[in-house]
Amino acid sequence: MTDNISLSFSHHGNPHTFDFPPTATISDLAERIYTSLSIPQAHQKFIITPKLGILKYPFPNPILPLSSLLSKKIILLAPLPSELSSLAAAAASTSRSQARKPPKPPAVKPTPYRDWQKSQDYATYTFSTLRPLPYLPNPEKSLRFLQRLRDDAGIKASMRKHKFAVGLLTEMNPAEHTTHESRTLGLNRNRGEIIELRLRTDAYDGYRDYRTIRKTLCHELAHNVYGEHDRDFWDLTNAIEKEVEGNDWRAGGHALTDQEFYNPEDGGVDGEHMDGGGWTGGEFVLGGRSDGSGPASAKHDGLGRRELMAQAAEERMKRQRDAEK
Length: 325
Known about the structure:
11 strands; 6-stranded mixed beta sheet; alpha/beta
């Protein structure tokens, strides 16, 4: 009888070892994690080093032998079951609150010193709930970033003009919606029920450029009206971006704390260019096709030069930190 093989991996810093038959595949590993750790396959993502990188379910090669992974380091990126339950409950609560007709704002008596109608509009057309991901480091910093987006003068003015009301504004885990070719920057669920934004750098060691994230938010707000990336959608996205810039009376970079994210106004990185990619499937994605045949050839696709410069600087600083370790 052939001996079983033992495969080890870590999850949230905790080691795990499972025994398998010699013919077991990575699909068998995903099934065992589901039955033993109560983590559904759809939430499983593995970092396998060296060489293989990130593999997520469903896998490019679902019959990849586990025996070929015995000498490799394997990290499971997935929320804990308790965190999954918390997020599901939050989404369900938001969905129920959206289904109910919002109460009519109480009437206020205008005075010569304040535009009460504007105040009521700002209280109505905003983000009802801000929520950082509690299982990522320093969620209080992410909350401050979400608060800054909510209170941004340009965002407030545009949401008021278009009567946009969003149930939940939350951050996206950099490990989610990521492949070797692209990184999703934003996601709009059910036309404004939930908007997710990628706030953090891929290495979790800082935050992305504020203007890049705000540009992503403009894109996702346009999905409150149009689901597809057609001409009407791009016209609305362009209008929102102009409104946000035009009403930003606090023009210029502003860091949450020292060195939390790169501000392109602080210095350029001329000569460095990254693939700007395109907008696909209702999500703002970096790294799409740029040969003129894919989404990247659309008139309004991709990031601007400053945003690409900021992303290039982030990658360069990450490489420098890795080299110094």
